[in-house]
Amino acid sequence: MTLAIVLTADAPAGGVLGERLAAQCRDAGADDVRIVADLRQLADLVDTATGPMLVTGADLVAHTAVLRHLATSPVGPTVSLVLTDPPTHGRTAVREDRGQVVAAGSPEQLDGHVSGTFGAALRVGTADLPALAAAARSVAAGVVPVGPAPAGGTVVGGPAVDRLFADLAARGTLAFAHRVRLLVAHRIADAAELAAAEAAVAAVDEDRAELRLSVKERDDFFTTYFVSTWSPYVTKAAARLGLSPTTVTMISVAFAVAAALLFGAVGRPALVTGAVLLYLGFVLDCVDGQLARYTRTFSAWGGWLDTMADRAKEYVVYAGLGYGATLAGFRYGWALAIAAMTLQTVRHMTDTWYGALHDEAARRPKAAAGGGGGIGDRLSAASNRVQADTGSVTYWLKRTVVFPIGERWALIALTVALFDQRIALIAVLAWGVLAFAYTGALRTLRARSMRVGVLDTVDAALHRDDGLLARVRPAAARRPGPLELAVLAALAAAVLLVLALVGGEAVPQWTAVVALALLLPAGGRARAPHGGALDWLVPAALRAAEYLFAIAVGVLGDVPPWVIFGYVFVLTLHHYDLTARLEKRKVAPPLHAATLGWEGRSVLLTLAAIAGIAGIGMVTLGAYLLVVFVGSVALAWVVLPARAARAAGPVGAGGRSPG
After folding, report:
1. Rounded to 5 degrees, what are φ and ψ at 116?
2. For the segment 264-322, what is each residue's pLDDT rounded down to a tens digit?
3. pLDDT of residue 69
4. pTM summary value
5. Are residues 598 and 466 in contact, defined by beta-carbon separation less than 8 angstroms?
6. Cβ-contact 63, 11 below 8 angstroms
7. Does the domain formed by 215-331+365-451 have CATH 3.40.50.1820?
8. The CATH fold of domain 459-648
9. From the CB of residue 392, how many other CB atoms can be counted at a distance below 10 Å?
């Protein structure tokens, strides 16, 4: 954060609180702080700003940590402070959904559907600065805008900062809500309220509250009761030692790799020790995020690395379990590991895109989204009621049945310590299938009621992972649609895999050509609209199709199962890279075109199978994709940022580098 503005226009005790807030903004990390009494002057300052900006009114009494958390919030480019205080004194009321401010204005403008009050402070992202400048000039001129947001216009007669935020929301600017928890933030209107707010601030130990805030407010059952009860002590120790979140992430990876190696051994002591290391590795996996929140050292690189490391650790553990089960005499140890990895990746793809779908639906007015009060809407309402009943049995059952990462690691640790690697993999698969069926059925019903085409808001071909063959071929007929063809491709690959497993050597390798012929038509809808209610499932269906097809080709070609596992593992790295970039709002990987696309890779594997060199083909293609992945990571996170920094010159434009 380089610039903070304290807006003192028509605020009570503006001079006194303005100076205090200015000092707090400096302590929160702002390099340049201005006290401004006129909205036109604010607009002029915004015009010259080159990075994110913190704007606060002068009627706010809060801990400095509240402003620091708002300024460094990683949830979105523009973030608004939202309080539980009632919207009195003309202050702007807000309605939020999934952490997004979807409406802002007076309570009457929101038809009474108010979830909080604007907290007189917001961090505005660089891309939204022009809208902020326009809003400031509009409010200064007394113009009431009519925009796409349900706010309908500015609040008349309220504080300037409230009218500014309502105008900004009316222009369609997406702002995420930042709620105050454990710390104190109040807006005051007179001396009595000022004294009460200052007393409330003084009564809270700010550092202790920040340490507790490093733990997620809502987490899964195992994490909440078996990790977060003591992990903050580790977080505090890591902060005192000067460890970065990235360092903790890498230590967590080392623990997981050590556990995987022990799972690949024979003997109860090795399995029990591996289970303990796996648990400790998961604790550190939680600590890296807690440390980032406690020290406010967020970065796109750190978020991407954490996502990729989580998946890599889990799949390395699957590999250790598969190898150990095979070593112990179970013939299908590697097969179970491959199945667990494939299932989990496809599940994660549906999780990612359903989350994106839900966020998109929350941003749209209900009438535009097309909610019709059907079973999907009733399920959504029931789910919201359960989520609101924090700590109830139903709440924990709902959070546990979806089989989150904490429960997965706990299940692996317990089953491998008490039984063996084979039972651990079977347990993961069984619970994973149950969770997939449960979430898939409910989400499908809810998505149909939302009627939002989230893939139409992004580069669908990129996230489908289409290659040159799919991008250059003529568009297919209107029907069947993208989802139908993707599901057909997955079914064809599944049938080929079943034939390969059941028929063995009796099934000729050229059979893969038939399955490929059913896979490739899915590329014909690459450039078609993906606005269907269920088209968010297309990426997951294509992942399933490619993975199952690769596994089937490997079985037909008598490829060693560990090679098949390694090839699919490399594919998962590539696909998690795509979804991590979506979540971190990053552009496509620099070398994405070199990955050949799902259809290009499938064609190459088919040719290798027909030539009788399926194993060599899979190893070569996997090694090539791994080199491309590593090169793409180096370009995206090291080379290109360094070039951009050199091009920008000595005067930086952005906010603080979070590390």
Report:
1. 175, -175
2. 998 999 999 999 999 999 999 999 999 999 999 988 888 899 999 999 999 999 999 99
3. 96
4. 0.91
5. yes
6. no
7. no
8. Four Helix Bundle (Hemerythrin (Met), subunit A) (1.20.120)
9. 11
